[in-house]
């Protein structure tokens, strides 16, 4: 076992920290010396209601263990107020764990525009507002650690969760670009796709499985990604029950018609080749992606036209 990772002097905002995964992240960071803003609206799983009890309870737990924490009851849609709480009480913000979330599951055929919008607002707009308010402080300080929380439903799709899948995939895109924009300012941004027993998952998992999937088994990865010693950025991890793994894009060698005229029947003829993952590559950047597309193509970039 390595030396204990500490967060003394660091200020962490954990959104949706009144329950489940956020609570586990907040308790761990608080126990390791971070000053924690425990944000939670205190609503139900579907985004209804409001209460200060959930955040207050976690603040009390952190303090009882000798840590430092303050509650914030705003929705993540009011990200500026959450960051202001960190500034007012602790004088800065070093870590943001965007974790708050709700579900509004329904098949796409039955999904209402409200179900779509609310999921977007809590997950995507909420993470944007909190991160956007924290961003200038991190840039000024030349330091920041940000964790986004996606879901397997976003990565792979899941019946009844078009809204949630859209939002969760959106967070991965946000993290990918923030990792690039934050690189020169020592701001590292990563995404976790957790699996854990909680209010959100208890509706879809049997009790014995929930028992094996404690939120405490996800918190160490979120905490590591939030530590100053961790230089990882722009990465995506699946985590749960003690399992930790990294994901990446894989692309087939494919087929390039390279300027020859071609129609749908030519695409059909090359279908097996286009989908053949033998000798697949793993593009890590937009540059690497474009290289294959532009091979053999006169570069538009050299002609001042693009
Ligand atoms: P949870 O329901 O136990 O906790 C979510 C917390 O977010 C609640 O305390 C809730 O009050 C709070 N919250 C909801 N809307 C908010 C808002 N607008 N502003 C501030 N706080 C708000 O759920 P859980 O499982 O801990 O989920 C945490 C995150 O992990 C969510 O983003 C969820 O989508 C994600 N996730 C969870 C999985 C799991 O297996 N539990 C699987 C994949 C993703």
CATH class of the largest domain: Alpha Beta
The CATH topology of the largest domain? Rossmann fold
Residue share in helix: 40-55%
Output the helix-strand order: EHEHEHEHEHHEHHEEHHH
Global outline: globular
Strand content: 5-15%
State the secondary-structure class. alpha/beta
Q: How many β strands by DSSP?
A: 8
Name the hetero compounds present.
Answer: 1,4-dihydronicotinamide adenine dinucleotide
The tally of domains stands at: 2
Provide the CATH architecture of the largest domain.
3-Layer(aba) Sandwich
Counting H and I runs of at least 4 residues, what is the number of helices?
Answer: 11
Domain Ketoreductase: 10-203
Keywords: Fatty acid metabolism, Lipid metabolism, Oxidoreductase, Peroxisome
Organism: Collimonas arenae
Main location: other
Q: Your description of this structure?
A:
- By secondary structure, the protein is an alpha/beta fold.
- The chain folds into two domains: 11-247, NAD(P)-binding Rossmann-like Domain (Rossmann fold); 249-305, Helix Hairpins (Orthogonal Bundle).
- The chain is built from eleven helices and eight strands.
- It has helices at residues 20-31, 53-64, 79-90, 113-141, 152-156, 162-182, 207-212, 219-225, 264-269, 271-274, 286-294; strands spanning 11-14, 35-39, 68-72, 95-98, 144-149, 187-194, 236-240, 243-247.
- The protein has an eight-stranded mixed β-sheet with strand order 3-2-1-4-5-6-7-8, with helices on both faces.
- Strand 1, helix 1 (20-31) and strand 2 form a beta-alpha-beta unit.
- Helix 1 packs across helix 8, helix 3 (79-90) packs parallel to helix 4 and helix 4 runs parallel beside helix 6 (162-182).
- The longest helix is centred in the middle third of the chain and has 29 residues, at 113-141.
